[in-house]
Amino acid sequence: MKRISIVFLQAVIVLIGIIALFILIRFPQTEGRAKDLDLISIYADPLIIYAYIMSIAFFIALYKAFRLIGYIGQNKIFTPDAVNTLKSIKYCAIAISVFIVIAGIYINITHHKDDDPAGFLAMCMLTTFASIVVATTAAIFEKLLQNAVDLKSENELTI
């Protein structure tokens, strides 16, 4: 791939990370029930803390995707490091989907009876589906890349 394409893709991943970090910091302050709270009370909410813990897997997956694009740019895609990077992305996507399902169950059980959690649960289903798609895609590419790495190492041994 051309160097400009690699830099562009890596810049997009960095931009996604910056936007996600901005949302994680700013959203709790603008959320409806946080209008009358101080900053400590806003960020001490168990669901907000849970979202920050879940975001660790998201940022690890972004970093691994950044590294994978770097491997592509260096023509080192058919290496065990690239396979391990895809495996890490797969595990992060699975962890994110599990975290989201647990958050949806928690909200469904603990929501106020006058409140309707349907919007939140719909978002949980959508993001869980997206995470499962990412995990499945990473698993497929991991298997293909592992086969290519095995074939490459076998060809190097036969010469």
What this model shows, in words?
There is one protein chain. It contains five helices and no strands. The chain is mainly alpha-helical. The longest helix is centred in the last third of the chain and has 41 residues, at 118-158. The two termini are 28 Å apart. The model has no long low-confidence stretch (mean pLDDT 89).
Number of helices: 5
Structural class: mainly alpha
The main β sheet shows up as:
none
Rg from alpha-carbon coordinates = 20 Å
Shape: elongated
Percent helix: over 70%
Q: Element order, helices and strands?
A: HHHHH
What average pLDDT do the residues reach? 89
**Number of E-state strands:** 0
Distance between the termini: 28 Å
Q: Which runs of at least 5 residues are low in confidence (pLDDT < 50)?
A: none
Percentage of residues in strands? under 5%
Oligomerization status of the protein chains: single chain
Keywords:
elongated; 159 residues; mainly alpha
Give a short summary of the structure:
The protein contains five helices and no strands. By secondary structure, it is mainly α.
Topology:
Elements: H1 3-30, H2 39-43, H3 46-73, H4 80-110, H5 118-158
